[in-house]
Amino acid sequence: MSVTHIILKKGRDKSIRAKHPWIFSGAIQHIKGEPAAGDTVEVYSQNGDILGLGAWSPESQIQVRMWKMGKGKIDREFFKQRIESALQQRATIGITHLNTAFRIINAESDGIPGMVVDKMGDWIIMQCLSTGANHWKNDIAEILMELTGCRGVYERSDVAIRKKEGLQETKGCLKGEEPPAHIDILEEGRHYRVDVVNGHKTGFYLDQRDNRSLVGHYAKEKTVLNCFSYTGGFAIAAALGKAKHITSIDASSHALEHAQQAYELNKLASKQTKNICGDVFKLLREYDHAGKRFDMIILDPPKFAENRSQIKKAARGYKDINRLGFKLLNPGGLLFTFSCSGLIDANLFQKIVSDAALDAGCDGQIIHKLAQASDHPTRLAFPEGFYLKGLVCQKIIS
Ligand code: SAH
């Protein structure tokens, strides 16, 4: 069977030549062939230059995601090389020897569009978000078994975004052994308990690793309020950083049970931590009315904006919790505030936080601007890969 040729409209080759990996349906002039979903296609400019090879996704607005620029072949060896490079890059920046859990493949930014691969102890958790990634998942799972010596590869493609690619949600073991009910991981000296089968995303928010370390750095002798705690990620970082006391709030009792087990794994004194199952919006108001104050507050909410129509509502949600956060801080206190909504960019987020301080009747300074951890890189030509923004604000003393 001959390979399908995709010929782009005049001028639409520019972004591909600049190494952006997406081709939208509107950029395509002509399709020579009848590719099936996930097939490799060759992409040409209007004047016949070969631009590269990509995966065909007929149901998505992004109809081709590029595997590589220029000529070549997309086969098992191609993916093996990409994964080897990604592992080597993580080793070079010191991720692999300090952590038993880290992101191996960060989709487009690691040259495998739509594919997320996380190592969680002896298991690998994979998420396939595009038809191309889905097409190659079994080969990639085999390669991962070979290269990492892991005990199994488990797929967590139970995400709604797959619909846009015409794919069903799915989860289950792809290769090797089924993962156990929980996996204990070590992150820069911190122990965590991860439920890779039923937890969020691939089980743990690896993207906050560097920010957790920063929380640990500032926590000494402070009273900490950790909002949207999940399994205690920031709480453990603060506790090991010798915080005086940490209150963690989350709506999920299951997540908080794992947090409690992780406190024990870290041998924390039971009086140092407290978990509260409840609604952050409601509890922050109650704390304010009761006159409670903290030295450090962490706000790491779930994604408030899933699409453009939700941006305004999301902005109101961020402003509300940040306003309450500023009110509950002691003078000189630190607010660690995050947004993982890709649709709220860094400038808008900063504006929201600034307005929140104004409404709280106080002022603050930004002492750090934060981002996703270094094993979640953003390819230079792919700014869409950047999604996690954080600010550390210090409340002005007078
Ligand atoms: N900070 C965590 C990740 C937070 S994920 C870490 O570093 O691992 C977001 C969490 O917010 C989820 O655990 C979810 O259960 C919780 N959540 C969502 N809405 C909430 C609400 N209104 N009140 C309390 N918790 C909420």
TrEMBL record:
MF-aspect GO terms: methyltransferase activity; RNA binding
Cellular component per GO, a single term: cytoplasm
Domain of life: Bacteria
Homology family: Belongs to the methyltransferase superfamily. RlmI family.
Main location: cytoplasm
Keyword RNA-binding in record: yes
GO biological process: methylation; rRNA processing
Organism: uncultured Thiotrichaceae bacterium
Protein name listed in UniProt: LSU m5C1962 methyltransferase RlmI
Keyword vocabulary terms for this entry: Cytoplasm, Methyltransferase, RNA-binding, rRNA processing, S-adenosyl-L-methionine, Transferase
